[in-house]
Amino acid sequence: MLRLGYPVVGVTDLSRAVAFWTRALDLVATEEWASDTWRTLEHADGSGRALALMVSASPAEPRPRLHLDLFTESRAEQEAEVERLTGLGARAVDWDSYPPDPDFVVLADPDDNVFCVVDLSRAPSGSGGPAS
Fold first, then answer.
1. What's the CA gap between 126 and 66, in Å, rounded?
2. What is the pTM of this model?
3. According to the model, what pLDDT value does residue 131 have?
4. 85, 83, 86, 124: which is closest to 103 by C-alpha?
5. 132: Cβ–Cβ under 8 A, 6 or more apart, which residues?
6. Closest by alpha carbon to 107, among 85, 87, 79, 124?
7. What is the pLDDT of residue 10?
8. How far apart are alpha carbons 128 and 103 in whole angstroms?
9. What Rg, from alpha-carbon coordinates, does the chain have?
10. Which residues share a beta bridge with 10?
């Protein structure tokens, strides 16, 4: 039976990416399949795999069709997390496609991989969770 594994993020500097994503999402790097070109990250509470990082020679896409959404519960939490993430090395992206009063903020990790920080209290579904 086929099942979904976890997202794999292409990076140019594996050590820098491990440092950013482990601190950003409270993950830990494991030795599972560890190599010079791959690291598996899991939840710090031991609940399982969360993300993988793979060295990639291709550049990050400025408008990727697939990206990570990181959830917060309020506008204040979103603002605090954006500040924390930029302090860890993320940067704000000049995004020209924001809707009026967006529920998300577009950032890029230190390898320029775009991701969003979403305030679920203002998400389009209005239910405090992803739209069904």
1. 23
2. 0.90
3. 46
4. 124
5. 125
6. 85
7. 97
8. 11
9. 15
10. 54
For position 55, what pLDDT does the model report? 98
Q: Which residue has the tokens 């399982």?
A: 48
Pairing of strands 8-11, 104-108: unpaired
Alpha carbon distance 132, 65 (integer Å): 20
User: Residues 25-59: pLDDT tens digits?
Assistant: 999 999 999 999 999 999 999 999 999 999 999 99
Please tell me what DSSP assigns to residue 115. Answer: E
In this prediction, residue 123 carries a pLDDT of 86
Edge-first strand order for the sheet with 91-92 is 68-72, 114-119, 104-108, 91-92
29 CB-near residues (< 8 Å, 6+ apart): 18, 22, 39, 40, 41
Three-state DSSP state, 38: strand
Q: How far apart are CA 129 and CA 17, in angstroms?
A: 28
| Residue numbers in the chain where pLDDT is lower than 50 | 125-129, 131-132
Strand 8-11 versus strand 49-55 pairing type: parallel
| Angstrom distance (rounded) from CA 112 to CA 73 | 25
First CA to last CA distance, the chain: 25
Q: Give the pLDDT score at 56.
A: 97
